[in-house]
Design brief:
Length: 114
């Protein structure tokens, strides 16, 4: 069955960095566009970035543009999110998704604070 497993979350200081990973299995990873979304406490789910199946194109929501980088390794069936210059407002549970939101991981908590 399809599985998406996020990892790499944790506590970071403002201005710091974290790298999230999403390990995919149960489907042909290289055939699907992938996305990251997040849900802050008390807020709804927010799409933040996406990447084409071959990695040729990426898109970002304005609040993370220039700070976050989405990438993928199709040989390893893994999606990444490099997060730099973290802000307290980046605190959220981060989810990876596949196939236009058809499949979702369980999420990983990112907390930004001193």
């Amino acid at each position: 069955q399809v599985q998406l497993v996020e990892s790499g979350g944790g506590l970071a200081q403002p201005g710091g960095s974290l790298r999230l990973s999403c390990a995919a299995s149960g489907f042909t990873f290289s055939s699907y566009a992938m996305s990251w979304a997040r849900q802050a406490p008390g807020e709804g789910l927010e799409w933040i970035c996406g990447i084409y199946s071959d990695g040729s194109e990426t898109r970002y929501e304005d609040s993370v543009k220039g700070r976050f980088t989405i990438s993928r390794d199709n040989a390893k069936n893994t999606l990444y999110l490099q997060m730099n210059s973290l802000k307290p407002e980046d605190t959220a549970v981060y989810f990876c998704s596949a196939a236009g939101g058809t499949y979702w991981g369980q999420g990983t908590q990112v907390t930004v604070g001193s």
